[in-house]
Specification:
The chain has 9 helices and 15 strands. By secondary structure, it is an alpha/beta fold. The mean pLDDT is 93. The structure holds threonylcarbamoyladenylate (TXA) and magnesium ion. The site of threonylcarbamoyladenylate has 31 residues, from strand 5, strand 6, strand 9 and strand 10.
Amino acid sequence: MNTLVLTDIDQAAALLRSGGVVAFPTETVFGLGADATNAQAIQRLFNAKGRPSDNPLIVHLAARDHWPRVARSLPPIAARLLERFAPGPLTVVLPKQPAIQAAVTAGLDTVAMRIPAHSQARQLIELAGVPVAAPSANRSSRPSGTTWQSVLEDLDGLIDAVLCGDTCEVGIESTVVDCTTQPPRLLRPGAISLSRLQAIAPEIAIADRDSPQVNSPGLRHPHYQPQAELQIVENAQQLERLLVERFPGPDRERRLALCGYAGLDTTQLSHQLGLARQFASVESYARHFYEFLRGADRLGLQSIFCQAAPTGGLGDALNDRMRRAAAPR
Ligand code: TXA
Ligand code: MG
């Protein structure tokens, strides 16, 4: 298959309408879109991504009041959250409407729904005129794609097209809140922090991922993992210790990558590093995180050290992605 690189939103929308699989930018990460009411299109999407069939997709809409296209009802808490945070990096889990293909929700009776804030994404969905199922646009288990070039790196020849766009502003995926449970639960931390959610709805609780009641099957699969092994470090001393333990010989020349947001002095290490980035803020760290992991892989580096982000707000979401990228394979 020849993957088209498009700048024309009309052309991308026509492809989606006719059952195509099209990657597009959003404010979080690139999405890999297909018509959520078309079983064949959804099958092609799962195949292209190599996604396990038990991991449900998020369905994207162009406007809040389109929710009846995907959901049977809108729990009051979801209405309040959408009023405040949509369009934006928030996904709400709702009772599923039958027109949405069972494969989209992995057979669940609930559906995840998001209204992206990115203008190209909203125009595309509006023009396509169908609800658009879209996981992150990367091969399953890889770091998410936040540039169209990274999307092609994973999916060239496997999808119909990628719509070019600016680098994604947030850089990590949306916050996911299950509004079908009592209390409602935060399933995945994201750009909208728990405290901002709780300011609107204090009853929202953090999901215990090990609980059998937590119905977010996607949490079980490996995620965000570069080829290089990843280690999280808190500070420079811990990094020094780890380097001495793990790379005692002189042969560690330029096989390592290091990124952080502050206070990790890399001047001493520079001869060991193939790649190093210090980000000025947590926002910038999150925005460039996946691209940093991909950059280390492009250079064939062996190990990546990432400084943990400060806790709270976006830092919690970034640390969640880091922990999962560092999880045992
Ligand atoms: O920012 C984002 O959310 C991006 C952009 C493209 O919108 N999309 C994204 O999709 O991150 P994906 O497929 O990589 O992650 C979807 C997450 C998974 O953790 C999945 O388990 C959860 O949403 N999910 C989807 N449907 C669900 C449902 N019915 N119940 C519970 N969790 C669900
Ligand atoms: Mg993903």
